[in-house]
Amino acid sequence: MSAAHKGEVHLVHLYPREMSIYGDLGNTRCLAARLRWHGYEPVVHGHHPGERWPAQAHLVLGGGGQDSGQVRVQDDLDRQADRLRELAADGVPMLMICGMYQLFGEAFITVEGRRLPGLGVLDVTTTGNRTRMIGPVVLDTDFGTVVGYENHSGSTVLGPGQQPFGSVLHGEGNNGQDRTEGARTHNVVGSYLHGPILPANPRLADGLLEIAARRVTGEFVPGELDDRIADEAHQRQVVRLTGRRR
Amino acid sequence: MGVIAGLRTSGAIAAGKAARVASRMRGGGSALPGLVAERVDPAILQHTLGSLPRGVVVVSGTNGKTTTTKMVVALLRAHGLRVFTNPTGSNFTRGVISALLGEVGISGRVDADVAVLELDEAHALKFAEVVAPTHALLLNVARDQLDRFAEIDHTARLLTTLAEQTTQAVVLNADDAFVSRIAGQLAPGVGVQWFAVDPAVADRLPEIQEADVRFDDPADAPTLGDQDGLLLPHDERSFTIRFPGGVDVGPLTLRQRGLAAMINATAATTMARVLLGPDWDAATASSALEAVHPPFGRGEVIDVDGAPLELVLVKNPAGFTVALGTYGNEPVATMIAINDNYADGRDVSWLYDVSFESLRDRGVSVTSGVRAWDMALRLRYDAVEVDRVEADLDTALDAFLGLHRGEPTRIFCTYTAMMHLRRRLATRYDLARFGEDPDA
């Protein structure tokens, strides 16, 4: 089976210990499996605070964490900030969920009004809230409909000109007001959606790894994947939450 | 004042008892009558429980509450104590009141020496506001239904607050930093006993425990004293609980399998030993533990036309991982039923924090429940074959039992899926009703 592999693709998962509380490591597992099914060789790096950055990074992932987890990774994230901004500007695909989405933004304003600067890769500002936005979500995105589950107390507002990741068909989204969800700049996608987001949204998963594969090998030659189970899981949530197939 | 309060309590008990009869007649759940009484008199618990001679024990933590509570009760009863408990797994304050209503006279007295209550983290605090526990047994902190409690750190804070309100002694898990750190937060004069796992098997703990990333320094492992319980597993079934300053309990074998059950037994035994003091007897304890039946849904075995069907409740990553580890050595035909109602946890992301590789050799016969397809998808990413996906629980159960007639079978299921399946099975096979333990 490992014949004719089409090239190595290096995945970096930021802070798997501190920032993957809602199964977000499943995104990395999903991408690694799908790369293999497409005939590529995935190499997964877990980047922990204080460690050296991997020599190759073709796709970067991050997940949700608790407040204590965010505090623990803050120093290391500061050290990696320039590198991550460069990679983002260069077009490296990234998927930042929930807490890491917030940290990739301009700033986080705490409930007490303190302003904590973020990486500024995405022009979004998040304000801490006392109430949480919790529940299943359906989005309309460039990658088709996307299903997932949100659970966040931060309320996020897009800066002028910042493209959202999707528009909300069901659920709250960035702030419960403007029907936007997440943000996208270059190939960096920030989103609140757990689920984890990728397994039941194979178009999004393949969209990200196609960009990575093209950057590494110059082309993307997809394999023959059987996504019937993923499509059924996806469609059932879409129909259940929006009342019809989309 | 006392007379008025007394009258109010009597009225509350009468109202609650009436609701209890009514809900029994409808075959309803266990929390409704408690809700009625709680509305009438929130201090009802204080009146009835506050004066028990051996105190009030609260058992809390994310996983193992129901099993551990049963074990503490069995240990105390084996030593001759009269124990009031909430045996239905209805681990909310209202469930406690419901259980009380079955046992108190209209005078508001309960005929018991001690109360042993299973309460989840949030409700344990509400309970403690009314009745300060004399003893608390705190098991572990793991991610569980984050859509309800939001954060593990928050759960740890709830348990810490509960411990702060405990008046005599706490028993803590030395191997879980979320719990062991509580030792520094107790009121003056409150005793601490530990339960712990033999360091030789401690490498198995990470898979059933959560990493505590709140502090720079790792938690110091507590130094165990003479009265602390140390679990020494001999194999998958047999173990000894060692008290350095006393007689070993065991070697013994539980009716429930796995390391988690042994840890629960160690926790329960350490608590019972604290409560019993000089009345404690190791041999009595050992035989009491061996006689404890698993609570339903926690490895309950149902006789399906001569073949055993095991119903295994799964509700969070640690619990599912423990369950898979427990049964991994004895693979049988397997069904997994995942619902996403409130009581199940509405977010099914947690399935990706569980490794299903132990099911790979045998495969999974059927996935079912509202999220049947998401479960099948999860298994696909661990290369576990699924023969059939059927969201409807009744259809799935019929198909599953039909396919495996005469074979041992096992169903892993979330809470509401278990309730549904068990009701269905109860109409066909001879099962105890919920809340009526066969050995109670």
Provide a descriptive summary of the structure in words:
The complex is a heterodimer of chains A (246) and B (440). Chain A is an alpha/beta fold. Chain A has a single domain (8-242), classed as 3-Layer(aba) Sandwich (Rossmann fold). Chain A contains 5 helices and 14 strands. Chain A has helices at residues 25-38, 67-89, 99-103, 202-217, 228-242, and strands at residues 8-14, 41-47, 59-62, 94-97, 107-109, 115-117, 124-127, 133-141, 144-152, 155-158, 166-170, 180-181, 183-185, 188-191. The mean pLDDT of chain A is 93. Chain B folds into 2 domains: 2-290, UDP-N-acetylmuramoyl-L-alanine:D-glutamate ligase, CATH 3.40.1190.10; 298-428, Protein-Tyrosine Phosphatase, Chain A (Alpha-Beta Complex). Chain B is built from 15 helices and 15 strands. Chain B is globular. Chain B starts with a helix and ends in a 12-residue tail after the last helix. The model of chain B is unreliable at 1-7, 21-30, 32-40 and 434-440 (pLDDT under 50).
Number of domains as seen in the coordinates of chain A: 1
Q: How many angstroms does the end-to-end distance of chain B come to?
A: 38 Å
CATH superfamily annotation of the largest domain in chain B: Mur-like, catalytic domain
For the biggest β-sheet of chain A, the strand order reads 2-1-3-4-14-13
Could you tell me the mean pLDDT of chain B? 82
What's the CATH first level of the largest domain in chain B? Alpha Beta
CATH structural architecture of chain A: 3-Layer(aba) Sandwich
The CATH superfamily of chain A appears as Class I glutamine amidotransferase (GATase) domain
CATH topology category name of the largest domain in chain B = UDP-N-acetylmuramoyl-L-alanine:D-glutamate ligase
Ranges of chain B where pLDDT stays below 50 over 5 or more residues in a row are 1-7, 21-30, 32-40, 434-440
Number of helices of chain A: 5
Order of helices and strands of chain A: EHEEHEHEEEEEEEEEEHH
What is the number of helical segments of chain B per DSSP (H or I, 4+ residues)?
15
Helix content range of the residues of chain A, please? 25-40%
Percent range for β-strand residues of chain B = 15-25%
Subunit organisation of the chains = heterodimer
In CATH, the topology of chain A is named Rossmann fold
Strand content of chain A: 25-35%
CATH architecture of the largest domain in chain B: 3-Layer(aba) Sandwich
Total number of distinct structural domains of chain B: 2
Radius of gyration of chain A: 17 Å
